[in-house]
Structures are given as C-alpha cells and as structure tokens.
Amino acid sequence: MKKGIVYPAGHRIPYCVDVPDKITCDWAAKTIGCEWVENVHPRRLPEGFCMIVDEEGLLKPNELNHVGSWFYETDKHGEPIVGNVLILKEVYGDEGPEWAGMDDDEVDKIFNLIGRK
Q1: What is the pLDDT of residues 31-70, one digit of tens each?
Q2: What kind and span of H or E run contains 90?
Q3: I need a surface site. Which of 62, 84, 106, 108 has the fewest CB within 10 A?
Q4: Which of these, 9, 37, 13, lies nearest to 23 by C-alpha position?
Q5: Can you tell me the distance from the alpha carbon of 9 to that of 69, in angstroms, rounded to the nearest whole number?
Q6: CB hemisphere CA count around 107 (13 angstroms)
Q7: Cβ of 33: how many Cβ atoms within 10 Å?
C-alpha cells in the first residue's frame, strides 16, 4: 500500500499513514486533524512532492511545526507552518494535479532530507 508521512507539530516523531487510492480533501483534513487543508509546494521538498497543511492553522492555538517550517523555508521569510502536516506525491491525472501516496523508496527519500527515520 502507498504511504504518506505525517509530521506532527512540536518535536513529535513523524509517522507513515496508508493512503487510499483516491485521496480527498476530507481524508487529508481528518489525517492531520483539521477542517480545511491547503496544498503547498515547499522549495525544500523535491519536485513532485507536496505538503498538506491546516488552512486555518495560524488562527488556532497550534504548535509550531519545525519540520514543516523548515520545508517551507520559514527561516528565509518568517511565515511559520503550525499544526500537523502531511507529505504526499503530486501527480497529473485526467483532471489535472492529484495527490498520491509514496512507495518505500520515496518515503525514505523524504525522511533522509531531515536526517532521520
């Protein structure tokens, strides 16, 4: 089964989740514990990957997401990522961009970006 990676807010340990064949906004929101999601393309993630964040994260009492903020280059522009984030692949289907799960090698590639698994 294909995977996604959840990086929890704070200094908590990341973990993998099984992803459905068709990933919806509702599934992504439930997975990271929010109501509305935003798809962002951080420069520190390889091309073809995306990060799903809480659209209203800064309006809530969320903790800083250190890994998400690093991917997003908060150190360069000062806009933090708060709350849990979900890393997925982004592929092009019949209707345009779609979210997709990762195989084990792709999961390892993402984990290796921050030097831990």
Answers
A1: 999 999 999 999 999 999 999 999 887 878 889 999 999 9
A2: strand 85-93
A3: 108
A4: 37
A5: 10
A6: 19
A7: 13
